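Quick question about two entries, pasted in order.
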Amino acid sequence: MKTSNINYFFSVSSEYRFDVEDSISKLLLLENLLKLGKLQEREKTTAYDDVCFLYKYYKLTVPNGFGFNSKSSEDSERIYADFKLKLLQEQDTVSDDLEEELITIFNKNRNFNFFLFNEFTVVKTLVHWIKGKNTKGTAYCPFNNIINAEAELSKDEISVDAPSFGDNCEFLIKALIYMLIGNVKNVRNFFTSFEEQIKSHNSTKEGAEYGFGFSCLSMGFKVGPTKRFVDAMFVEDMLNRVNGRFAVIVPMRLSIGGLRQELELREKISDSGRLKAVISLPAGFMVGTAIYTQALVFDADNSQHESVSFLDLRDREYIEAGKSGRKLVNLNLKARAEIENVLADKESTSSIKVSLSEIKNNENSLDIGRYIAARESAKSLDGIETVNLEDVVEIYRAQASVKDSDGDKYYEISASDINPLGIIETPKKEIVLKKDNRALKNLVHKGDIVLAIKGSTGKVGLVEAEHDNWLAGQSFVIIRLKDKAWTPEFLFWQLNSKRIKKQLGLLSTGGFIQLLKISDVKGLKLIPPTTEILQKVHDANIRRSEILQKIKDLQAELASLDEII
């Protein structure tokens, strides 16, 4: 079907405000009828009749209670009939490049929450490795949101178990896509709930039953009285049920989180010895969200990896030009080559190998930034005496401020109050607090340093004078010297150095909001002061103050010029 026709269909559907899923399902219906050469004989049939016809043609059972979305009204049926007639008049045909056609349908016309297709580079590359040379077997794709992974797995003589918890329309779309691809008999789609799927799994006989697996679960979805994350549950489930290779797309939360469920899952992953690679994916890889995700790639259950390859594909150099944005990113051929090299245990410019023992010593963290930071720190400080930050300072986490209705006026420091040189300018945020308010623990004093661990992570500010009403905001830690051999200026100079800033950048985690662990801040490696370096820092600070004063004088002069007229 021509792209122009597709665009016409969706423009009319949009005009009448029909759900995109409803429009997609009907367009796929027409694609299937075109493919089978049945469009002409079914000129006057309804969409529902055509669905029943296709299910009967492929000897499938129509799901109970099947129907289109509620917005599938008489107007929708009229549009469907009119477009069917248009195709007959133009003698249109199904596109030769079916995958590209389907990508066009989905990626140009889907809504915020609807994603069944994803980019092909990562998905195809992973699936090809998962399958290896095998052309027979059964794959497990529980609640998978990336349909092209299932489509790739279900080729040859491989069947796919694909439980779903979506609605009828989504279920229908998947079936229609498999009809088009020609592997509808290879994929067992069925409705179930997360809870029922887990229950059925727990009641099965011991031993894994699937030779392959792939899933990208709904992220952040919780079930049960304990509100367990579904994605963590099914990563463990796949470890138990898939005896061959498999991959899962997960949010960064699973790799770095401190919840009991997350910690236990990562421990099980490490103990399994099956984790082969962790691939960090760019924001926008999953449709409708900018959170960072990772592909966890697992080897067969008879493997025992002593190290894990970490590959970072978040840089722009791995994204196809003009194919990035909130809706979807497409990775390029360079990304594919890097993945293939990692999976084949070849050299890769963007990957590192981390021993299993090092991973276990870091709470089984699967964050590549942590391990890159450790290596770069060790390299840059090779042969140099260092101390940990916590050895020379006290570190206080700023408390959340709750305003009082009356009391004294204070000023709360935010990241925007710290200029590029690290000078804390007069805070803009005013807050009224009583004498017993816990936020008063956030009072800063001359010589204190504030370091942002949330949001603008790594931003450092030095309190150069005494202010009895300045508070650190809750996104900061307060760093206060306890070692008299150090000076606040020298400590600030190191924390504001390129080396430390790069370290903190690599250690920062999160999606929309970057976070730093206090334990990582405490473990920062610092170079102890010497008389010579202390003098240099002192002289540099004096010179900095002189430059800042000149800037202020020039700014005042500019302001006066504006007042001439």
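Here is the second entry:
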Amino acid sequence: MKPQQIADILAQHDAYWDAQRAELREQKAFYMVNYWKERQAVPYGDRSQVLRTELPKGYAVVESYLGSLYAKNPAVSVGPDIRGRGNPEVSQATANRYLLQIREQLEDATRLALVFPCAFLKLAPVDNVDPLKRVSTAAVPPWQVIVDASSSSWSGQRYVGHVYLMPLEEAAARYNKRKDGFQTRSYSSWVDQLSETAAAAGQSTQPVNDTGRWVRVVEFYDLTEDRLLVWSPDFKEGDRYLFEGVQVQVGALEANAAAAAGLPVDTEHVRSGIPYKSASGRPIVPIIPLYFSRDPEVPMRGLALLWRIRDQLREANVMRTYQAQGVRRMARQWMVREGFLSDESASKLAAGLDGEFIEVDAPPGTPLAGELIPVSNPPIPADIGLYGQQVLQDINEAGLLAPFTRGQATGATATENRLLAAYSSSEIGRMARIRDSVISLAASTYNVMLSVLLGDEAEPLTLPNPIGPTMLSAEDLTGDFEYFAVDSGSTPVSDLAKQQALVTQAPLLLQLGVPPDKLREELVRVFGFPEDFNAPAAEPAPAPAAAALPEAATDAAMPEAPGLPPNRSL
């Protein structure tokens, strides 16, 4: 692929997302609870005088999903390679240590994917003495990732790109170019930038965070030709690449893949191109997609959760603003003859403080009822409140969250709760499965990258028990392993349903002949009890043997227990 082709693809990418900017800004405003600030508009009246009220419903919906999806630490189990390659136990330990480190990034990516159409996790090599920290991970918004929109799946793409800003000094040093060989730009949040149309309408742009000179860089993964190309529209020699590939020492994974394909293996040299390969030799892009909903006609384009409830969120803010305005109109208002009150007295009347003396310009004996008349405003129609309640109900239903998943107390029975759990799990469970696929793919990608970055070196480190201290090598991580997310599809809602069902059915299971030990193991697993609960109970110590006595003497020496027949033991 030539630089001009990348330039054309980037232009199409930018045009698509620029057309979405206003919608994305609104969705972010719903989450950030600054809808009215973003719109710079109110339902009616003078903007400077009209009260604007906003409900934090967008934030609440997103965070409710996050709480359900990440109630537990992410983890995977790793199945062995059918050919016996690598060490699945070590691979599992390294993957789980990595997943524990990136929990925050996973939540950040999920939050982005709920607010915006989709999100991504980007894994990148970094220099670090700790072998398990040689891969960094960051959540990436959708407008920074170029996807092949003509593809129906992530694995079927011809290319993937990552577009981002890099400081000029870093770009010049990394790619061995002169600083004056670049055009530079200011840094600012892309989604917070306003279009020319909005600026012309009088909306003010947010201040630019111009802390230095920046260069726009495109990491372009050409999966058809197996090439990693680095290009910049700000490089004055735009018909040239900044760099081709990421230079890494050829490690065991790549060597094995080359050998399997019948290609020569040269571990003494570095190679360029896409350095990360599966056990079968397929190029791996270190970018993990996270789509919770997709455009059915264009699967590589996502649909945001907040997008599907945008009308209801707008209406909720408008209705609550109307209600707030109505309440304010019902406060003390007065009609006064001009000149009847001084400015100071008018201010005191408006303040309504207890014990204030308000002077009026009237002869003694003048009835104030004719000069100072309270304004009577009509009450807020009851239909307004009912309509507002319906809007909030629509938001909750469109969000597919049962009341108790939002922390709302209910008087529902256990059976009703199970039905509500099933209702919520239909959506949250689907999202949990997507979450699990992201966790599994991130873990496997990390191990592939780590195997390449290790090269032919073995690094000492300590892994969690039962492995403990060991020497980590690329060979340990090399294999066609299966990665399975632990507690696949698990959420607090689904877990509650499982717990209630198990408690209800436990007596029946025992009657049907299920061994108590097996039932106990299931209780420990479902409720998350310590594994020590599965340990067999210790046998009671035998009672000390009594001293032998003559039979007659024994009977005579034993006192009878009250309420028991003679010579009957307890």
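Reply: The two ends are 91 Å apart (CA to CA). The longest strand covers residues 159-167. Hope that helps.
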